[in-house]
From TrEMBL:
It is a multi-pass membrane protein. It is found in: Cell membrane. The keyword Transferase does not apply. It holds the Pfam family MatE. One of its GO terms (biological process) is monoatomic ion transport. It comes from Candidatus Avoscillospira stercorigallinarum. GO terms for cellular component: plasma membrane. The lineage of its organism: Bacteria, Bacillati, Bacillota, Clostridia, Eubacteriales. InterPro entries: MATE_fam, MATE_MdtK, MdtK-like. One of its GO terms (molecular function) is xenobiotic transmembrane transporter activity. Keywords: Antiport, Cell membrane, Ion transport, Membrane, Transmembrane, Transmembrane helix, Transport. This is Probable multidrug resistance protein NorM. Belongs to the multi antimicrobial extrusion (MATE) (TC 2.A.66.1) family.
C-alpha cells in the first residue's frame, strides 16, 4: 500500500515506515550471515574465510546496486510527494534501463577480473579456489541484486516498506534451508552456499519487480509517460553517483583493510569474517533506517513541507538509539557466543580476533547511527556534496589509521581501533551539515 509521508505526526509516520525497513534489512543480511554460518559450521574454518574474503569484493557490486536504489528512491519520492505521477513513471523506467546497462558492464568486468581482485587483496593460496568460485556465482546473480534494489527503492519512495519485508522474510528463511540442504545433503561446499543465495534472491527479485510494476500500473496519469528521459537520468545520476562513489570507496577501503588483515593468517581472517558479518548487520540496519529518513525527507521536500524534515531527523535519531542499546550490550558481553554460531571448533586466533573487534566497535554504534540518520537527511534533500565530505572523511581516516596503527603496534589491534576514530569525526561533520542546512530550491534536485 502506498503511503503519503507528508501528513501525520513525523515521529509516528517515520516509525511506522521504518520498522518494516529494519525487518527487511535483517532478513537481507541473513543471506550473507547464512552463507558464513553454514560454511563455517558445516564445511570448515577455511570455507568461512573464503566466503568472508570474497564478501569484501562483492560489496563493490552491491555499492552500485545500492546507488541505483537510492537514486531511484529519492527522485521517485520527490515526484510522488509533488504528485507529478507521469514524470515519476518516466523516472522508474529510466532507472530500470540505466541499471540494466550498468549491471551488464559490471558482470563482464567482474568475471574477467575476479582472480586479479582476489590477488590484489593478498588472498592466501589455500583460499583462492573457493573464494573465486563464490565470487563468480555471486556475479551470475547480479541482475537479481540490481533489479531487486530498484524495486525496493520504488516501494520505499511510494511509502510502502511492508511489501519488501514480506518478500525477504520468506526468501531469506528459505535461503537458510537451501544452504544447509546443498552443503550437507549434496556436499556442494562453498558452491552450495553461493547457489542457494542465487536461487532464493532470484525468486525475491522476480516477485518484487512483478508487484511493483502492478502497483505503478494502478496509478493513473493523463498521458502516456516517456520510456526514457535524459533529463530525468541526470536527476537520478546526481543522487546515484555520489551514493555509488560512497559505497564503492568504502568497499575499496574495506578491500585495502582486508589486504592488511590477510597478512595475519587464516585464523585472524576467519575471526574477522565472522565478526564483520555481525557488525555489518548493525551498520547496514542503520543505513537502511537512514534510507527511510531519506524517503521521508524527499517526499516532504517535494510537497514543500520543510519544517517536517528536521522533525524527521530527531525522530530518526531516537529510533536508532533505541536500537543501539540491545545490540551494543549483546555484542560487547555476548560476542563470543554469537561468533560461535559461525565458528565450529575455532582456533584461538579466530575467537580472540572476533571478540576484540566487537568489543572495540560496539560502544560506538551510538555514534555512527546518528551519522547515518544525518546522511539520510542530506541525501533526501539533495545535499550530496556535504554527504560526500562526511563519508570520505570517515573512509580515509579508517583506511590510513588501519595501515599505520597495525604497523606501529605490530598487531591486528591497530586495525580495529581505526573504526571508532573515523566514525566519530565523520559524525561530527554530518551533524554540523544538517544543523546548518538551508532548505530551499537550490537543495532540491
Amino acid at each position: 500500500m502506498n503511503q503519503d509521508l507528508t501528513v501525520g505526526k513525523p515521529s509516528r509516520v517515520l516509525w511506522n515506515f521504518c520498522l518494516p525497513l529494519f525487518g527487511s534489512i535483517v532478513f537481507q543480511q541473513l543471506y550473507n550471515i547464512a552463507d558464513s554460518l553454514v560454511a563455517g559450521r558445516f564445511v570448515g574454518e577455511n570455507a568461512l574465510a573464503s566466503v568472508g574474503n570474497s564478501y569484501e569484493i562483492t560489496l563493490i557490486f552491491l555499492a552500485f546496486a545500492f546507488g541505483c536504489n537510492i537514486g531511484c528512491s529519492v527522485i521517485v519520492a520527490q515526484l510522488f510527494g509533488a504528485k507529478e505521477y507521469r514524470d515519476m513513471k518516466t523516472a522508474v523506467s529510466t532507472a530500470g534501463i540505466a541499471s540494466a546497462v550498468l549491471c551488464g558492464l559490471l558482470m563482464a568486468l567482474g568475471l574477467l577480473l575476479g582472480r586479479a581482485l582476489l590477488e590484489l587483496i593478498q588472498t592466501p593460496e589455500e583460499l583462492m579456489a573457493d573464494s573465486l568460485l563464490y565470487l563468480n556465482i555471486y556475479l551470475y546473480g547480479l541482475p537479481f541484486l540490481f533489479f531487486y534494489n530498484i524495486a525496493t527503492g520504488i516501494f520505499s519512495a511510494l511509502g510502502d516498506s511492508k511489501t519488501p519485508f514480506y518478500f525477504l522474510a520468506i526468501s531469506s528463511t528459505a535461503n537458510i534451508a537451501v544452504d544447509i540442504l546443498f552443503v550437507t545433503a549434496f556436499r556442494m561446499g562453498v558452491a552450495g552456499v553461493a547457489w542457494a543465495t542465487f536461487l532464493c534472491q532470484g525468486v525475491s527479485c522476480v516477485l518484487a519487480v512483478a508487484v511493483v510494476l502492478r502497483r505503478l500500473h494502478k496509478i493513473e496519469v493523463p498521458a502516456k509517460p516517456a520510456l526514457f528521459s535524459g533529463g530525468v537520468l541526470v536527476r537520478l545520476a546526481r543522487i546515484a553517483i555520489p551514493s555509488i562513489l560512497q559505497q564503492s570507496f568504502i568497499s575499496v577501503g574495506n578491500i585495502v583493510i582486508q589486504g592488511v588483515i590477510n597478512g595475519y593468517g587464516p585464523g585472524v581472517i576467519a575471526g574477522y569474517s565472522a565478526a564483520v558479518k555481525l557488525n555489518n548487520l548493525v551498520t547496514t540496519s542503520f543505513t537502511t533506517l537512514g534510507n527511510g529518513v531519506s524517503n521521508f525527507a524527499a517526499q516532504n521536500l517535494g510537497a514543500w513541507k520543510l519544517d517536517r524534515i528536521h522533525a524527521g531527523f530527531k525522530a530518526g535519531r531516537s529510533m536508532v538509539w533505541l536500537l543501539c542499546v540491545p545490540l551494543t550490550l549483546a555484542y560487547f558481553f555476548a560476542g563470543k557466543w554469537l561468533l560461535l554460531l559461525f565458528l565450529e571448533n575455532p582456533s584461538e586466533a579466530a575467537l580472540h580476533t572476533g571478540i576484540l573487534f566487537l568489543r572495540i566497535l560496539s560502544p560506538f554504534y551510538f555514534v555512527v547511527s546518528v551519522k547515518l540518520v544525518a546522511d539520510g537527511i542530506l541525501r533526501g534533500v539533495g545535499a550530496m556534496g556535504k554527504f560526500m565530505i562526511a563519508t570520505f572523511t570517515d573512509l580515509i581516516l579508517r583506511v590510513l589509521l588501519a595501515i599505520v596503527l597495525s604497523a606501529l603496534l605490530r598487531d591486528s589491534l591497530g586495525i580495529w581501533c581505526a573504526w571508532p576514530v573515523g566514525w566519530t569525526v565523520a559524525t561530527v561533520l554530518s551533524l554540523v551539515f544538517v544543523k546548518a542546512l538551508k532548505l530551499g530550491k537550490k537543495e532540491a534536485v
